[in-house]
Amino acid sequence: MVLAQLGGSISRAIQQMSNATIIDEKVLNECLNEITRALLQSDVQFKLVRDMQTNIKKIVNLDDLAAGHNKRRIIQQAIFNELCKILDPGKPSFTPKKGKTSVVMFVGLQGSGKTTTCTKYAYYHQKKGWKPALVCADTFRAGAFDQLKQNATKAKIPFYGSYTESDPVKIAVEGVERFKKENCDLIIVDTSGRHKQEAALFEEMRQVSEATKPDLVIFVMDSSIGQAAFDQAQAFKQSVAVGAVIVTKMDGHAKGGGALSAVAATKSPVIFIGTGEHMDEFEVFDVKPFVSRLLGMGDLSGFMDKIHEVVPMDQQPELLQKLSEGNFTLRIMYEQFQNILKMGPIGQVFSMLPGFSAELMPKGREKESQAKIKRYMTMMDSMTNEELDSSNPKLMNESRIMRIARGSGRQVREVMEMLEEYKRLAKIWSKMKGLKIPKKGEMSALSRNMNA
Ligand code: GDP
């Protein structure tokens, strides 16, 4: 994801500062200038960036920090807080309740990813036990109904639409009525877009909204417009009661940071981000875990959420227990590889852990990553139980490595590479030691994780 580059630049700046023998004003300024440059490149508004810099300098008064203070940590925390402030809209979004019918209406310009996002949103909730349904009230774009139908069929989500009816209000009302009768608890209405903001689009949005009385209106926008997102989000908000925003195409555009901060400035909460064309390339957006991940500090709550989503129920308690013990064996690595291979787009779980993302499973190279994981697993198949269950790196001596290479038909070099990977993962895993495992959505452990 392009945001990873922004995160990389910021964490590098912090790292460089940490490497300095003495953190004085010059070092701090260099770090802040580097961060400023990265944020401006990501199209974050100049004023926001300048204010951030001023605030950090105010908080981090180097003269007042006694020698014993951990300046690095204080500065890092200040940067974290200020980035969160830039992205925080200051108000939460309405969240539909499971088991109680909610109507959610999607609005946005044509091409923003609205139809794709409707299905992603439905699919996300379906996986969490909801009963969603999709209504296509987009009668403006030829092929919109076919697209929604295709996506919905793939995800096995009921849908409603018409090839002949041209009145979007009529379709929306009929669809909502039908799915209410069928006891669907999340009825999603996809509305028409236009190439640009125009009176006809806003009038149609207003009419569909009046007729269906949505509990939540979600505005979908493409992140490539960067800080221009402010004006777009304001314009939509003025026409219809936008309660939440989903920012799409965060995988491909350098301006994603600008778009997110601009939306926050309109006081509209961003609830999800789209990170690819596939149905599950869709992530909950929560400011603190997002910034934490951006800075390479990991996103423990996202990690937990993914564990709950992809690790089979019966294996969850055991895995969480092992996680809190911090003891990472090759067998745990093997089991996690099995989960990763099962869950489709690789790397979603582990990318949430500090320092984990790019190396093992870089985005866009999923096939190669999968092949690598399979290769590692073949080598582990040639290991003894003692080797798999030990967390003592010294056990893997030369003769054992040669035996594993022979047994799996691989080169010694490859076995050593796999063991290096194991050591790297074990180091990250060990940071989880003693961690209070949060329940779904709980953030309590995050700050502890950040300070580790
Ligand atoms: P609509 O006109 O707003 O309904 O837009 P569509 O849902 O038809 O999407 C327009 C294009 O954007 C399609 O090719 C989608 O596959 C693509 N798209 C949607 N969301 C994302 C995303 O998060 N990432 C990427 N890379 N492409 C996306």
UniProtKB/TrEMBL annotation:
Origin species: Manihot esculenta
Domain remark in the UniProt entry: The NG domain, also named G domain, is a special guanosine triphosphatase (GTPase) domain, which binds GTP and forms a guanosine 5'-triphosphate (GTP)-dependent complex with a homologous NG domain in the SRP receptor subunit SRPRA. The two NG domains undergo cooperative rearrangements upon their assembly, which culminate in the reciprocal activation of the GTPase activity of one another. SRP receptor compaction upon binding with cargo-loaded SRP and GTPase rearrangement drive SRP-mediated cotranslational protein translocation into the ER. The M domain binds the 7SL RNA in presence of SRP19 and binds the signal sequence of presecretory proteins.
Keyword 4Fe-4S set for record: no
CDD domains listed in its UniProt record: SRP54_G
SMART domains according to UniProt: AAA, SRP54, SRP54_N
Source species, domain of life: Eukaryota
Protein name: Signal recognition particle 54 kDa protein
Subunit details: Component of a signal recognition particle (SRP) complex that consists of a 7SL RNA molecule of 300 nucleotides and six protein subunits: SRP72, SRP68, SRP54, SRP19, SRP14 and SRP9.
Domain SRP54-type proteins GTP-binding: 269-282
Compartment(s) where it occurs, according to its Swiss-Prot or TrEMBL record: Cytoplasm; Endoplasmic reticulum
Swiss-Prot/TrEMBL keywords: Cytoplasm, Endoplasmic reticulum, GTP-binding, Hydrolase, Nucleotide-binding, Ribonucleoprotein, RNA-binding, Signal recognition particle
PROSITE patterns: SRP54
